[in-house]
Amino acid sequence: MPGRQSRRSMLAAITALPLTGALGACSGSDSASPQSSSKTGTKGSRGTTTITFWSALRGSQEVVDQFNKTHDHIQVRFEQIPSGNGGGYLKLSNAARAGNAPDVATIEYPQVPGYAIDGVARDITSLISDDLRKKLLPQALGQTTFEGRTFSVPLDIEPTVLHYRKDLFDKYGFDVPTTWDEYADLARAVRRTGGKRKVCTFPIDMGLFSGLCWQAGAQWFDTSKGAWNVSLADAPTRRVAKYWQRLIDEDLVYATNPNSRANDAQIGNGLVLTRHSGAWDAGAQMNARPEQKGLWRIAPQPQWDPDRPALGTNGGSTFAITKDSAHPEAAMEFIEWQVSSPDALKARLSSGASSQYPAVSELIPVGRAAFDRKYYGGQDIYTLFEQEAHKIRDGWVWGPRMTATAQVMQDAFTRAAAGSGTLESSMRATEDGTMPDLKALGLKTTQHST
Prior knowledge:
Keywords: Cell membrane, Lipoprotein, Membrane, Palmitate, Signal. InterPro entries: Bact_solute-bd_prot1, SBP, TAT_signal. This protein is α/β, with parallel strands linked by helices. It has two domains: 10-157 and 316-359, D-Maltodextrin-Binding Protein, domain 2 (3-Layer(aba) Sandwich); 160-312 and 396-447, D-Maltodextrin-Binding Protein, domain 2 (3-Layer(aba) Sandwich), CATH 3.40.190.10. The chain contains 19 helices and 16 strands. The chain has helices at residues 10-15, 19-26, 60-70, 88-98, 112-117, 130-135, 138-141, 166-172, 180-192, 206-216, 235-249, 261-268, 281-288, 328-340, 342-349, 364-370, 381-389, 402-417, 423-440; strands at residues 42-43, 49-55, 74-80, 104-108, 145-146, 149-150, 153-154, 160-165, 201-203, 221-222, 228-230, 254-256, 274-278, 296-300, 317-321, 445-447. Strands 1, 2, 3, 4, 7 and 15 form a six-stranded mixed sheet that branches. A hairpin with a 5-residue loop joins strand 1 (42-43) and strand 2 (49-55). Helix 18 (402-417) runs antiparallel to helix 19 (423-440). The longest helix has 18 residues, at 423-440. The model is unreliable at 1-11 and 15-39 (pLDDT under 50).
């Protein structure tokens, strides 16, 4: 596997672009009117600073309510917005272009470089306390820090894990696979049981596939030699693509959009025996399928080389202070409390079952205590998550326009699942489709896939 990527020149790539022009490339249609309800922080008559916070995360209102109860000198005005791809990122970009972005915004890891390039997420290196830096898992902070300069603060980080139907494993005498070779053998054994059951659904989107490639040693982007170097079809990615293509060709897996009704039906009807996802999905599974209580367990993700275990992630959010914030110090105080205070996590979890893995490890006992273990047969999933989080391979860099890259990938995967092309050719098409967006930003680029 490649070592930690040098982020030298990353900062230059991020700061080389002026705010004007770059925003137009990420904000979508110019006909979308900027939202005017946001206001930058204000100073009250009694010395109270009011800041604004936008987020799509469940439990954010409860977090803000708890903060406002316990902090007299800072008050937070919260606005629930759509998910990023559901319109939230468009709203944030348009607001920043109009000069009225919120003080604090929620940004998922893949979008951090883009918002840094656009100048929306400000450099907050000097605002983050040494105490907070020490508390954050290095692999989490590393995804928001470039050449020593940080642009957002991680809330959670989500190592990929393997969910499996223990009842069906017991019924058929299957062992939990620890390597990808064993997993392929399991897929064939599932087919031999007859019926429509398959080992899993291969999700035709970027979310999980990026984590699988990350685990295998892929480096889709790096910024060495002062350029954005793109390798979306590098050797580790081709290895992963060929592996899953073989399972698809042998009809051992379903190939389904993870957000589709078909995928829900496959899981709900017991047609898949395993699922691959980030730690957060344990809580989502509980909420979506309460009738399957006690049937599932969670295990480490299979490895390519058990002697050199590695993982990627699937999911996770961060908090950025925008360029329009008039009170960045107050915004950072709110962010630090959000990501590191037990009271903040308790407030978030009060909104419903959640299994998010906190980027601050001191909060793990809070998550563990709040999680109902009965759904997973009494299993202490947080101990497993803690073990797996330390396997996350350092050095991964997201690209400048991951939303666009993800759309190209999903379109290509959909065609491949229908028999037009392969996963490997889809990744080559994704690389080719990514380049115009990068060049439109004025970035120096190279392509390195062979």
